[in-house]
Design a protein that fits this description.
Order of helices and strands: HEHEEEEHEEEEHEHEHEEEHEEEEEEEHH
Oligomer: single chain
Number of strands: 21
Largest sheet: 6 strands, antiparallel
Structural class: alpha+beta
Shape: extended
């Protein structure tokens, strides 16, 4: 099998003792023969929500509905929300569902007749589906609903499920939104302002866009968290570091503009506060380069876990005859401090503050790494508060003055004939 060849090549490549070695692709057996249409027909669609089987109400109870940031809802040119959310259903004159509501059937078929609800959603991504739901939660919000107090009559709702890929992006975006909201709430409770930027990767326009929409609205906060946990790498570390290194040297003020109500200072959008980088064991490649750069340039502190450990840059310019590839780490990195590998290759970036997320605590809704990052910023701001230059007061009067009493009377000059 082609997979056996992959295994052999992977073991051979592992003898190089270097990260950034991947074996992928090739002419492998595909039960669907690579047909996109067949895959689409076989793939279960998603409702953008988590559910659990509930025999008491003969259906599946909705336990959560993914909600992303409403200010940044565009994904590849289209808005992606949960098909069950009010943001989606109200566009067709329907009311959204809520956690606690129960789905009892899909297109008239009982959901308890199959092992899993999603079996009834195979091939239904982008197509209209009728759900019969019992509004145990959302009905109580409508006092005009005659079934508000009983909630026992199923109601039909027409939804359009999304693909598994879109559902994955939605869940990730919802986690970003929740984490940003949590960071701002924790900072507010601690008595300071904070900006939060999460980068899924360091690759291309999507990564640049993520940094833009996270950094620039909050560049004037006294604290900033750049979260590169789970980051798969890329190549924009130098661009991000360039922005983070900007220093303000000039400040502006007018009758209707100051640092609080206007542009404030130059260089434009320079961040003047304290910076924390959040890392974990899945922070990899170029994201590790960003973390190392922040440390080496003295821009901030690193909080979290030791990173993946890939400090040799790679290339995919060596394809195999069947379209597969074994990547080759081929560009070494170094500096005077760490030498080859920048202390990243096979070692990872060690954070200044080491803290792990307990899986059980994290599942319950707490983020111990984020909480520690907020504590680090709070202590840092207490010891080194951010100081802005004082208003120098009334400007010196440098206008030209004339002593009228001692000014000689001009003598008329006769015209020249």
């Amino acid at each position: 099998k082609r997979e056996d060849l992959d295994d052999a090549m992977g073991q051979m490549a592992s003898e190089l003792s270097a990260l950034h070695v991947f074996t992928m692709g090739g002419d492998k057996n595909d039960p669907l023969h690579g047909g996109k249409t067949r895959k689409k027909l076989e793939e279960p669609a998603s409702l953008g929500a988590t559910v659990e089987r509930w025999h008491e109400w003969k259906g599946y109870k909705i336990t959560s509905i993914a909600e992303r940031d409403p200010d940044y809802n565009m994904l590849d040119g289209s808005a992606i929300y949960s098909p069950l959310s009010d943001r989606t259903l109200r566009l067709t004159g329907q009311r959204g569902l809520q956690p606690g509501d129960v789905i009892v059937s899909v297109n008239g078929e009982s959901v308890l007749r199959v092992p899993d609800l999603h079996m009834l959603l195979r091939g239904m991504a982008g197509r209209s589906v009728r759900l019969d739901v019992v509004r145990l939660a959302s009905a109580l919000n409508d006092p005009n609903d005659e079934w508000a107090h009983s909630g026992q009559k199923p109601e039909s709702v027409i939804v359009v499920p999304i693909s598994q890929k879109d559902a994955s992006n939605l869940r990730y975006a919802a986690w970003e939104y929740q984490t940003r909201t949590m960071a701002k709430r924790l900072a507010d409770e601690a008595g300071f302002s904070v900006g939060y930027v999460h980068l899924r990767s360091m690759s291309g326009a999507s990564a640049i866009d993520s940094f833009f929409r996270g950094f620039y609205p909050d560049h004037d906060k006294v604290g900033l968290i750049v979260d590169v946990r789970h980051n798969i790498g890329g190549s924009i570390d130098s661009w991000v570091l360039d922005i983070l290194q900007r220093k303000a040297w000039e400040f502006w003020k007018s009758r209707n503009m100051n640092m609080d109500t206007g542009i404030g200072w130059n260089e434009r959008f320079a961040f003047l506060g304290h910076l924390v980088i959040l890392t974990d064991e899945k922070t990899s490649s170029d994201a590790e380069g960003l973390a190392r750069g922040v440390s080496e340039l003295g821009l901030g502190q690193i909080v979290g876990r030791r990173t993946w450990g890939g400090g040799i840059w790679l290339s995919f310019n060596n394809p195999l005859v069947d379209g597969g590839v074994v990547s080759a780490p081929q560009m070494g990195t170094y500096n005077d401090h760490y030498g080859w590998g920048l202390g990243i290759e096979q070692m990872g970036v060690t954070p200044h503050v080491d803290v792990d997320n307990d899986p059980r605590v994290f599942y319950s809704g707490r983020d111990m790494q984020l909480e520690r990052a907020i504590q680090v910023l709070s202590d840092w701001l207490r010891d080194e508060p951010i100081a802005f230059p004082n208003d120098p007061g009334k400007p010196k009067d440098m206008s030209l003055k004339k002593d009228l009493d001692s000014c000689p009377v001009p003598v008329p000059v006769p015209p020249v004939r």
